[in-house]
């Protein structure tokens, strides 16, 4: 089967997009690919354009991944169009569209929809789309992770587990991996179904409702300094707060984005809170909100890739939020309580 000349992965959940990327590579990468990654919200370097036309090391093929491709400007797509017009055996460009969905569809820039590569990919079925995990699809994802980890649970336990998990594939995978590690060496379940998760095991899960992300953002904007912000984080999960923070921040930013875009009618909030968040959304603006989402995605990627520990990623994420939303950016350079613990 010939691989696509290029591909689009359209999903706000980076973990689901990564899984689809690995599936595509497994199907089409008979000889393997040398991987290169770039970001659409940064200026594309000269090396990127070279990668699109030159073979990899030792003449091999390259997979050129463009994260946050929704941020690419119209001029970039104009320059990309002729370079993507034919099939290049030496290079497989894959564009990740990571913006939030609205009304059941991805929100795409008008210049991307009109771009020839997008039109060609849609016509040839080179576009994979997913809104991310939902309450409806979460149980199926959990069962797939169970199968991969050799776990099983009674229907009632599965229902309780799903109710406590966020709609975030990376966080769900992390929690199930934690359960699997805790049950390491356990006995096989009935019928060889694997190790059984029981109700008492659910106490090991992080609380995704305990961390008040809106309260955290308010504390940052009020300028109370790092001490106040870290007390908020450490008081709601401590060193295990990373994935609850990523999940909550992503959800909060999407709400603020909708309010900043004039779509407050779609946000279900008490009137007093809606007014407060709408004021904050206008003050923060879409540029800073988009950067906050990027901070969350970067923190998640750094842990999943093994580049950073949970504690290191949490420190960088909080420091980034202080820089982005705080009135006194110089506070970011001071040591955090997490650093003093290590």
Automatic annotation (TrEMBL):
Keyword Zinc attached: no
Keyword Nucleotidyltransferase attached: yes
Keywords: DNA replication, DNA-directed DNA polymerase, Nucleotidyltransferase, Transferase
Gene3D superfamilies assigned: 1.10.8.60, 1.20.272.10, P-loop containing nucleotide triphosphate hydrolases
SUPFAM superfamilies cross-referenced by the UniProt entry: post-AAA+ oligomerization domain-like
Assigned EC number: 2.7.7.7
Catalytic reaction equation(s): DNA(n) + a 2'-deoxyribonucleoside 5'-triphosphate = DNA(n+1) + diphosphate
Family: Belongs to the DNA polymerase HolA subunit family.
Name of protein: DNA-directed DNA polymerase
Gene source species: Desulfocurvibacter africanus PCS
